[in-house]
Design a protein that fits this description.
The structure is a homodimer.
Chain A (H helix, E strand, L loop, with lengths): L4 E6 L4 H13 L4 E5 L7 H7 L3 H5 L2 E3 L2 H5 L4 E5 L10 E2 L1 H11 L4 E5 L8 H4 L4 E3 L12 H15 L15 H17 L8 H15 L3 H30 L1
Parallel strand pairs in A: 1-2, 1-6, 2-3, 4-6, 4-7, 5-7
Helix pairs in contact in A: 1-2, 1-7, 5-7, 8-10
Chain lengths: 247, 247
């Protein structure tokens, strides 16, 4: 579905932005770049900023007109940086990109205006939906490629590809953790940290800490190993002491 | 609360990335930049890429060590680009940034590693939480400033500042819209577009179209004005015809 999404950059001034936009697109799985009358393209700076996304630059479609760039697209979302008197619906990317993906069984377009002035009124009139990225009202100067990055990211998430590949968390079983708590309490009694005054209260505090940490099986084993060796070491010391006393 | 969030860039190679990161931060309302041993800083390229966020560069805290950069921080989230054998919890920004904001009553830190190799193991060990941006597995080469942009954006949204300033939609009232549909039907009967065969079916299709468009009061007035003038024009033509016939 992301293959049906084209990113259209209109009248881009800085070729570096074209390259950085291509890189941003590729990191999020987009590949179709259309350029309406770019000031400089192809360009060495665009290639440098693409940093490995040069395949996207190589197959970028350079168009003379907006009509050409929109050919075949069934849905057009325009990026609007400024608040203006426009009648189109304006949504934040989080709300807008799921709507774009709904249409992306067929070609859809994301239309970005120039760095300086955004979309023209004629371009705005061709959009079914306006998208505005929420920004700091005191500094709304979002770079063009940064805007492409944010919108492509939201599109990837809307396409259901927001898995960050986090490792599977492997939680320890309740009985495994209980075994650790029993051993911990025994050890704490043995070293007289728990002296019978507030054992339950202290054990609850320790339970709370380890509950928050969501122990994994290997971690339970490490902690129990520490307790076992603590007890063994104490046993050894006691034997040494009794040997000395019996001498 | 965003004022309690510091962005720490560790051992950054390219000063342009420092400037672009400052710009990215500022667009999302972040302001506290910490730099651990940057290769070049201050630097003209950093200033150029900051594009108006030079106040953030001017008050950036340059540190010699990670300890210095983390001083006072109660929570540290590290950015991990690669899948590695780490024991920390790894979350996507959308899940992670609300957790960061929960801690941001006090200073919290977002820790970014170098462009080439990310965080070191020693840096990883200082993080309570790892954050990984979901990317195209075939091209995960996210620029450092782009990563700062995405995470800052998610942080802004998590801080409840995700309003994009969309204009208030002002929907037309049901009776206003019904008046339009009545007039539309009358006009369509008059011009014999509705000829009594399937008037209900056709009107339902037109209702569906205009329902989807969620008409505003001004739009209802424009559409009714068109219908009124259509009828008047027809009336004029009919009078002209009858005048000709009576001649």
């Amino acid at each position: 579905m992301l293959n049906n999404v084209r990113v259209i950059l209109s009248h881009t001034s800085h070729p570096g932005n074209i390259g950085a936009a291509a890189r941003a697109m590729k990191t999020m799985g987009l590949s179709r770049l259309y350029l309406i009358n770019p000031r400089f393209f192809p360009d060495a700076q665009a290639a440098a900023m693409a940093a490995g996304a040069d395949d996207i630059l190589a197959k970028a479609v350079v168009c003379a007109t907006l009509d050409e760039a929109l050919q075949g697209a069934v849905f057009v979302a325009g990026m609007s940086a400024r608040v203006r008197d426009i009648s189109q619906e304006v949504l934040a990317p989080r709300e807008a990109m799921p709507l774009v993906m709904q249409q992306a069984q067929q070609p859809v377009a994301l239309l970005f205006g120039t760095e300086m002035s955004g979309l023209t009124n004629d371009e705005l009139a061709r959009c079914q939906l306006m998208v505005r990225i929420p920004v700091n009202p005191d500094f709304s100067s979002l770079n063009l490629a940064a805007a492409v990055q944010l919108v492509s990211y939201e599109l990837r998430l809307a396409a259901g590809q927001g898995d960050c590949g986090a490792p599977e968390v492997n939680p320890a079983s309740a009985e495994h953790v209980e075994g650790f708590f029993r051993q911990l309490e025994e050890t704490l009694v043995e070293i007289e940290f728990l002296n019978g005054k507030h054992p339950t209260k202290l054990m609850h505090k320790l339970r709370r800490l380890y509950a928050r940490a969501r122990l994994e099986p290997e971690e339970v084993n490490i902690l129990r190993g520490i307790l076992t060796l603590t007890t063994q070491y104490h046993g050894q010391l006691k034997r040494d002491v009794s040997n000395v006393q019996s001498d």
